[in-house]
Specification:
The protein has about 300 residues and is mainly alpha-helical. The chain has one domain. The chain contains 13 helices and four strands. Strands 1-2 form a two-stranded antiparallel sheet. The chain has a two-stranded antiparallel sheet with strand order 3-4.
Length: about 300
């Protein structure tokens, strides 16, 4: 039986910390679209619990759309700028790239079989709409949350850390191995190896991003800036709990079927799996920066 009370408590506490910190550091009132997002989220919750369609089926992308509006508005109230309002074209690119970037993990899942979807509409067009909309919110959700956490000012500068070129190359090689081994291993073994996939893109791509002069966490460390890394890790924690909290009651949802810890579920996710959201948030940053750079779009700053 999923530990619903524990999950709800952790989710509420996490959201409470975000709300308290926003109140502490905000410079201006929450913009109107933040209140719109909050109202949309509350309305969707009510309709979802009452089983009202199509909200119950599309609840996950609706909730994340509302949350992204709220988080972006909170960042603007603190910093005076935000992704959506300051660079709308760049934000649209982030939304667009979120779909193919997440499909990368769906391709891995075809082989490793770690999750499955249930309650998806039988009509292929409606199903495709739900998938695309939900996938389009993943990268914006993570990076908007990281922006919000970084705006709280929790993380200052520290001693620079500079790795040699060979050490960075070793990280890239290790990342490539993490991404390759789960696929070439027999499926019965690979099913246990999705963990390295949640790390591999970060190890592989962040050195490449630094070498090409694009924003990178290794570049941040060279300058004594750890705020982006820590904010991404916190964002992974926040979004992981929100994803699982909102998914649990939705009519169309995912189930985890990987062959470990199934007896320790909190919502649909086995408890140790929540740790995977932390490196996944780092991967979101590195993958988006790499993709935007290759497309010659303006990526992260």
């Amino acid at each position: 039986m999923p530990m619903i009370e524990l999950g709800a408590g952790v989710t509420a506490a996490t959201a409470g910390v975000l709300g308290a910190e926003f109140i502490r550091v905000r410079e201006k009132k929450l913009p109107f679209y933040g209140w719109l997002g909050l109202g949309l989220l509350a309305t969707a919750e009510i309709l979802m619990f009452r089983g009202v369609q199509p909200v119950a089926t599309y609840f996950t992308p609706i909730a994340w759309t509302a949350y992204i509006l709220l988080a972006d508005a909170a960042v603007r109230a603190i910093r005076g700028r935000s992704r959506l309002t300051t660079a709308p074209a760049q934000f649209a690119g982030l939304v667009f790239l979120s779909i193919p970037l997440w499909l990368t993990f769906e391709v891995y899942n075809l082989r490793l079989r770690n999750w499955t979807y249930v309650g998806v509409p039988a009509n292929w067009a409606l199903a495709l709409l739900g998938y695309a909309w939900a996938f389009a919110t993943i990268w914006p959700g993570i990076l908007e949350t990281a922006d919000l956490v970084e705006a709280f000012g929790w993380f200052g500068k520290s001693r620079p850390i500079e790795l040699s070129r060979s050490a960075e190359g070793a990280l890239a090689v290790a990342g490539g191995a993490m991404l390759l081994v789960p696929v070439v291993a027999p499926q019965r073994i690979g099913a246990y190896l999705f963990g390295p996939v949640w790390l591999g893109f970060a190890f592989l791509l962040d050195p490449v991003n630094r070498w090409r002069g694009w924003p990178s966490l290794l570049g941040d460390l060279r300058e004594g800036r750890r705020g982006r890394l820590w904010s991404l890790l916190v964002a992974g924690w926040v979004c992981g709990w929100l994803w699982e909290f909102w998914n649990f009651w939705a009519a169309a949802k995912w189930h985890y079927i990987f062959p470990m810890f199934q007896q320790w579920k909190v919502f649909e996710m086995p408890a140790p799996g929540y740790l995977g959201f932390l490196p996944f948030a780092v991967e979101c940053f590195t993958m988006y920066t790499f993709a935007a750079g290759m497309l010659k779009w303006r990526g992260e700053g």
